[in-house]
Design a protein that fits this description.
This protein is mainly alpha-helical and 317 residues long. Helix content is 70%, strand content 0%.
């Protein structure tokens, strides 16, 4: 049975009311776990899935394995959760003066005074060492490629202050794993991974625009920019282009990697899910936006499982 947090008002706005951190984590650890978004793991999943997709597509392309390498899947999972935590920690350090003035983010550990900036920095560095420990398990090209994403991680929090398109920077950063997963298998980047990556960038712009509509009023007041403010009432047409472009690029990636019927059936299911997101989106309702954002986990699982299904079928032919 799940126990309720001692104080429901301590739960950060976009975390589930019965999340494991507030319900079960030791009191001393809660601020750090919240800082790393372990109470809101959807972002870690959205970081992880492109790694898994890319790894599985690379192994599908090889045509020798019936299932993805489980050790690599585990490494990517650990790395994704650690580095998402590190990235969010850096983001909160940079945005600490803004977060305290926004209702949805005011309870985050730094602006609420639960931990200091120095403590947060130490936690972020510790998570980076976890990520490094994962990274050195791969080939040298993959290590160098993954390290190249650090510059994007550093600049992302600042992009919201200078452009209405910070979601592009987020997409380029957050979906780097679409390149890394392929490199872990082949030791290089090929066209399937590049097209997969670009499709993932468009996917991120789409779903993070939906997410950003939760904060658009506060952002406008504070001078923070986003595609939600840029698109406004024209968000739906823009989403059609972004999600449609993602499907097209993923289809090209699957074709180039040797994807078969299950993969393209998965794309059809994902297309239907995107249509649902767009048609039912209410940009004036924060809960509606959050639920559509969270539903992208369905996209991740459908894509991954259909690639794995194709691997198993093609390897046994």
């Amino acid at each position: 049975m799940t126990s309720a947090p001692k104080n429901q008002t301590d739960i950060i706005a976009d975390a589930s009311s019965n999340n494991w951190v507030d319900s079960h984590a030791p009191e001393f650890a809660k601020p750090y776990l919240k800082l790393g978004r372990f109470d809101r793991p959807i972002g870690s999943w959205l970081l992880l899935f492109p790694c898994w997709w890319s790894q599985a597509l690379a192994e599908l392309h090889q045509g020798t394995a019936t299932l993805p390498n489980p050790w690599y899947l585990l490494l990517f999972a650990i790395g994704a959760f650690a580095m998402r935590g590190a990235g969010c920690t850096w983001n909160d350090i940079v945005d600490r003066d803004y977060d305290g003035r926004v209702a949805r983010t005011a309870l985050r550990p730094i602006p609420s005074g639960q931990i200091s900036t120095r403590q947060a920095l130490g936690f972020g560095i510790a998570l980076c060492f976890v990520g490094l420990g994962v990274l050195v398990q791969f080939n040298n090209f993959t290590i160098a490629l993954a390290m190249a994403s650090l510059g994007l991680i550093v600049i992302y929090p600042f992009s919201k202050r200078y452009t209405y398109w910070p979601q592009i920077v987020l997409g380029l950063t957050f979906k780097w794993g679409a390149l890394v997963g392929w490199a872990a298998i082949y030791g290089r980047i090929d066209w399937p991974s590049l097209t997969l990556y670009l499709g993932c960038v468009l996917w991120t712009i789409g779903y993070d625009t939906i997410y950003a509509h939760q904060d658009k009023d506060d952002d406008a007041m504070l001078g923070i920019k986003s595609t939600a403010l840029r698109f406004g009432e024209r968000t739906r047409p823009w989403l059609i282009w972004f999600y449609g472009g993602a499907i097209l690029l993923w289809a090209i990636a699957g074709y180039l990697a040797g994807g078969d019927a299950l993969f393209f059936l998965g794309l059809l299911v994902v297309s239907g899910h995107f249509a649902w997101q767009i048609s039912t989106l209410d940009i004036t309702d924060a809960k509606n936006c959050l639920s559509r954002f969270r539903s992208n986990r369905i996209v991740g699982w459908v894509m991954f499982l259909t690639i794995v299904g194709d691997m198993a079928l093609l390897a046994n032919q």
